[in-house]
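We treat protein structure as text, and this decision shapes the records that our systems exchange. Because each token names a local backbone shape, the row as a whole describes the fold. For reference, a complete record is included directly beneath this paragraph.
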Amino acid sequence: MAGWEDSSKVPLSITEQGIYNLNHRKSLADLIARAMQIKGDLDVELFEKAVPGIVNTYPIFRCRYKGEPVVRSLGDVELDYMDIRHMSVAHITSFLRQFSSSPMDLGSDQLIGLSLFRTGEDEYIFLTKCHHIITDGISLSLLWAECLTAYLSMSAGKVYESQVQITDFSDYVNFEEMYLESTRGQKAYYYWRNKLELQREAVEKASDEEIASIICAEVNHKIEGGEFAQIQANASAAQVSLFAYLCAAYQLTLCEFLHHDFWMNTNLSLRLKREHRFILGPMFRYANLAVCRNETWEEKLNRLSVEIRRAIRSAYAADSIGPHGSIGHGLNASNCFLITFLQAEEHQEGFTAVYTGEISDWVTVNDQLKIRTTPLPTRLTPYGIYLSLAVFGGQLRASFIYNVNCFSGELVESIVNRWRMRLINGSGEKMPSL
């Protein structure tokens, strides 16, 4: 297969195809945005050189998508600088909200936006916004880390050289294509296609009253210490993975609060596999987990454990219930839920609270600068609730990002508290009635 020097011959990955098709079916802001606050003596000119210099080494970030059939084109990425010290805090908040959620055109726009805003004498906000077709949150955070490393090295008078990539996103697409052509890949493809086809009628019925607005709010939750140790022990005693245990508790909790059928996707990133950890681009491993109301806690744990293992062992190469799939592209947001999971030790991967959208503490990076991640005022998701989980540093961080047109803040708080109780107590007599 051709490499990025001939990008038009690199086929779209399965995820790219799904997002591209969806983008042309309906108006959906499928964006990811991150904001970093910077305090100190920042060399703006050097920052403007260092950040695009890193970003442009990865062709996936330079992609645009045009035509039918879709053809990629590549264009260099630039960083925009704007002095907004004249704005009040309220105006800055409103400006960032609008700036981070403005749509991107797949064919003409730069699909990763790099912006540095000066908000005070020695205060800045570095905003990164990108279309989901070219990257995911994990890739974006890895890119952040490399950009910052490059700037710090260059500001110290050193020459920074990007890490040599043994593989890149085109190699991953090649792996995916070869997998689908294999006997194992075909078996997995037909399994998932047939599994989801059985749900087509129910999905179409649930899609009649689509909620157009996808403005969201967020509830963050952290479990650590003895409580987290108890949850890990519970999963171990049940002989299931921590992820299966978290999924089962989430499903059972939603069944208690929702009185209609719903569909739930899980998302495991290939970054957890060593061979794909440093490939930047949109790579997901989706599984549609069936939601069953009439089963015991033990039955739910065992069933989800089997389904998750099957998903991990196969490339998910079929329609997906939810906004990235052709079956569920019109699914009412209140019927669609997602849980994403990241598990890594902080000292190994450098993962921080940026993954869960929480505000991090100030971190001193050198004698002149300190930084912290800060959430943007709003996030967009077409799901009813998007539960983002991260396990690192001996704690579990959970962000419940919910569509405000589907749920109230009070209801989501109740769901969060009930989910936490179930994680700790399991099921049965220890769980109080609603």
